Amino acid sequence: MAYTTIDDPSAHFQTALWSGDNASTQNITNDGNSDLQPDWVWVKCRNTSGNGFDHTVWDTSRGVDNNLNKSISTSQPDNQGLGDNVTTTAQLGGVSAMLSDGFTVREGSIDNDSRYVNESSRTYVGWQWKCNGGTTSTNSDGTVNTTMQLNSTAGFSIITWTGAGNNTSTAGHGLGAIPDCIIVKNREDAQNWSVAFPKFETSKLMSLNTDAAFSSASGLSSYNSSTFVDGSGGSSEDYIAYCFKPIQGYSKFSKYTGNGNTDGPFVYTGFKPAWLMIKRSDSANSWYLVDGTRGSSNVISAELEANNDGAEATGNVRLDILSNGYKIRTSGAAYNASGGTYVYMAFAENPFVSSEGVPTTAR
Questions:
Q1: CA distances (Å), 167 to each of 51, 182, 294, in order?
Q2: Annotated domain spans of the chain
Q3: 273 pLDDT band (50/70/90 cuts)?
Q4: Helical (H) or strand (E) element with 148
Q5: Looking at the chain, which terminus has fewer C-beta neighbours within 10 angstroms, N or C?
Q6: What is the reported pTM?
């Protein structure tokens, strides 16, 4: 039996770093073992905070374009294409093309636009996931049809649909198993993001753009191997969801309990993490983002917060990335309050053991 089905995680996930150069466009090229043409790109300016420097995502299901702003910010409830200083759908800077091994960023024409991704003196990070090259199909498993692209190897689907205007319609996700994590955004209205971890919280949600804890709320529910209740409420508007199931040696979506000590818990993932998003779920705290590219050696302390526009900081996180998981090295409440519950998403740099039985090493 194979230890993993994905020997090279860089074929499905990579992190890229770049400096803005004020050119009208700049091609960002990956440096992983495999070429990666991304379908979901998440960008953040690292060295600047405030208005105009939000976390922003693009994907090939909605499409990327030189002429239209199709971005959505994780740190704002705004609908697609809008931001703090944006009142039209004019292209104001963002991801304008997906490349065979990376993507193109286009300089914006308005300073402080939250999609501004190529300003000189700014440094940036872009996290990228592969789905199906933008090729979609119709999924009719639910009571509303979804337009789906699916990477079954990596346990990842992107689905879009139009809500039926009630809280009981179901949407097909295509994963063939109950998703471990679903991230949903209304594209047409200024509503909070919804994040579900169905395996251990079947009736509670969190919002990616706030620091709030799990709470009971109408919305996503009734998860099964084919569909979930989409919670589209009283509006017939367009939605998007990023859906995940775990793949041994590549991805994991789970939780841990803090012990309040600087010798914090070890969290087993079954691989050396390349990227982590950690959120305290029983109390208000931010969604912290850590990766092994910005933090190249242990103890890693470079963090960004998905729910706000702050610059990269080092005040909360201290953890070691290991060959089979990660080890918390702080007693702070953001990561390790005594008895605190924390959820996380993790994607691999290397599997702990390859399909041929070859182990990886820690940093």
A1: 34, 17, 41
A2: 9-129, 137-244, 252-351
A3: very high
A4: strand 146-151
A5: N
A6: 0.94
